[in-house]
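Form P-L/3: holo structure prediction, ligand adenosine-5'-diphosphate.
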Amino acid sequence: MKNKILIANRGEIAVRIIRAAKELGYETVAVYSTADQQSLHVKLADEAICIGGSHSKDSYLNMNNILSAAISTGCNAIHPGYGFLAENSEFVEMVERCNIAFIGPSSKSISLIGDKAAARTFAKAIGIPIIEGSEGILNDAQEGLKIAKRIGYPVMIKASSGGGGRGISIVRSDEEFLSSFERTSLEAETSFGDASLYIERFIESPKHIEIQIIADSKGNYVHLFERDCSMQRRNQKMIEEAPSTILNDILRRKICMAAIKLAKSIHYVNAGTLEFLVDSKGNFYFIEMNTRIQVEHPVTEAITGLDLVKEQIKIAYGKELSFKQRDVKVNGHAIECRINAEDAMHGFTPTPGKITNILFPGGMGVRIDTHIYPGYEVPPFYDSLLAKLVVHAPTRREAIKKMRIALEQFVIEGISTNIEYQYLIMHNPDFIKGQYDTGFIARFNTLVEAETNE
Ligand code: ADP
Ligand code: ADP
Ligand code: MG
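OUTPUT (holo model):
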């Protein structure tokens, strides 16, 4: 029987997974919502099945429909991509019970480490530094208030099931605490179906450094070094690069070893990412583990020359990793810009609508992962990512130059995007020097707004 994979996702990541499966000679089945009938992943897969209405809860979050689609088309594996059901242990358990391979970790690993508050407790127990805060989830607002008083303001209230930068608030005083708690809890309930919250001390101007790891079912663990994802707007990544400009070899080694230690201790299998914050003194703290492929994985692929999605698929089918830690070498520098359907020069409002024309950049060391094409209508129901533009060059300076040219030559007509905004960042002196932290964009916006209002 030929291997056949159902892709339980949409957009650029569905297209990315279809390509990897095809390269391995496997068949693919796309699923789509009624709003995505004209989507590229539907056209590129061998088969496609409609799984429900436009709203995610009716389609891409509809576990029964997705499983029925997999069974009726004879799939023996499911790739979840990122977002949607990728980190839902209930779904993964259902997949396991149907005897279908889940291209990701086991449901057990996800329940163990997918909950952010539980992950903190776990990391602490094995000696990995975490940010001072609550032990597990908070029982109520009063308990939270007590902890906030003890560790001192500002603090962050965070949703235990949170993701994509949502369900996080900064609180600066006792007075703000109770209302912030209620608001964040409500947001967590509506966005993630889980109102549980925990607290962390707020770290001023940190760097977001994450480690990509990959493990097979034979007990081989390899890290693929770091990605610097400090360029964020509202706790959501916008630009990612590797290697990071702030790590020296000693700190890099320490963080990579912490990541491997944590992954090993839970017998983690498949690709995963351990996220850390690094403060201005070079202290690092584990914040969460993403038990899935990440948006910015191409940056790591560029510098290591490895195809992470193909490796993920091979691991799920029981194959051993084809490389050892000593084989992984960092080559050059890579940068990714997320190109979004949002009017970045005017408050980042979403801009769904018809794309009338596109010109893609190209050339040596330029990669575009996307699902858009001329005439494509961007639906208003899903996230605003249109394309990932990734450049790879021998040095960071050359990568920045290449990115500037690629952005200049990237034309999307019909809707507003953040291409021009990304172009401005590529010319910012602090970015060029590699001196930026997670507060950069908030500060940069004030400058851009002042200029556009002139
Ligand atoms: P990454 O962690 O891969 O860098 P993001 O944080 O931007 O990427 O998340 C990628 C997508 O997945 C976004 O659309 C985001 O909303 C979604 N997502 C991430 N985590 C969760 C989660 N826990 N629940 C629901 N959606 C999530
Ligand atoms: P998500 O699950 O949404 O990805 P994370 O816990 O990974 O949430 O945090 C997202 C971002 O929010 C981080 O990259 C960082 O910029 C910011 N952040 C999270 N926790 C803290 C903290 N304790 N102090 C300062 N910034 C934080
Ligand atoms: Mg995160």
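COMMENT: The pocket of adenosine-5'-diphosphate (ligand 1) is lined by residues 82-83, 87, 161-164, 192, 236-237, 290, 294-296, 383 (CB under 6 Å).
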